[in-house]
Amino acid sequence: MIFANIYLINFIMEEEKTVDLQRLLFEQLKSHAISNISLVDALADLLNISNDAVYRRLRGEKRLDVDELSQICTHFNVSLDALVGAKQQMLHFGYVPLDLNNAVVYKQYMKQLLQSFTALAKANEREVFFTAIDIPMFHFLPYTELTLFKVFSWANSTGAFKGNFSEFCSIMIDDELISIYEQLTAVYKIIPSVEIWTERTIDTILRLMDYYFESGYFSSTDEVLLLCTQLLEMINGINQWSTRGFKDELRGTVHYQLYLSGIELENNFVVMKREQIPTCIIKLYTINSMVTTDKDFCNESTKWINNAMHKSTLISGASQKESFKFFNLLTQKVRYLIKRIESSNDLFNPSNPPY
What we know:
Elements: H1 6-13, H2 15-32, H3 36-47, H4 51-58, H5 66-75, H6 80-84, E1 94-95, H7 103-121, E2 126-131, H8 144-157, H9 165-172, H10 175-189, E3 193-197, H11 203-214, H12 221-244, E4 256-260, E5 269-274, E6 277-283, E7 289-292, H13 295-310, E8 313-314, H14 320-342
Parallel strand pairs: 2-3, 3-4
Antiparallel strand pairs: 1-7, 2-5, 4-8, 5-6, 6-7
Helix pairs in contact: 3-4, 7-10, 8-9, 11-14, 12-14
């Protein structure tokens, strides 16, 4: 969003500062573009100028005029305030509202996520960090029903959808959505990643499954038991990555680091680093998120994550004893829920579940 105010207009009219603003703008666009060539083509089409004219602007030989600057910021959703530095202790975040009464809106949101992580996967230097109050969504994606249950529970909690789970799936599932899930799964497998979990990271999904079963949102017991089976398969897959310390089984080039924190995590953050340039994602409402490239905020978030790692135990590719205990605990929690579901009387027993 562009805020037309006197300060910004004066700023743009000052030659030296304008060149610096132009440089910062193009640096930000380059950090998120899939390639420089595609960025040049996109700018040429947007501004209706030749590729050579775009290159002159990228090199700083030709200054952007106010109209060009406005067009670029609007098209690429770049905050001019953030570039100028007129923060006044304010941060600028990108946020896309989700209307889950409309499957098209959700698919568009997932396509944008796919585009972002595809660009990250193509970078020479790439890495993503998670502080996992909840299981990172990429682990859900190979399991369509389990993924959609997360989306369904959020849609229900916000009042966006009133029906049961099977009705929600019938609306949402199609070949296009499954393809997006598959592409995101493939992309995450080639991005080195670091995840910080606690023993309670799995509890969120277990409580949701328990609650919605008790509340009658499943058409049959088999529906929720399928979700439990998929969750067990997910745990097994994460265990395999953790045991190897790598996502790719044969070459061992895409590292996977799993840390176990002994204290509860305070934030649900994702920090993407592309060519050492960070982007911070703050998870909201289970599914949605806010995104910022604010340098100071991203650096502060990175420091917090690094500190959390130092206070945690690395269980991937290292401590077999700690790893066995951790994954056995996760498995037992899921099996406890399965037992409660299979014996429906237990669902209304006041005994405390382990999640």
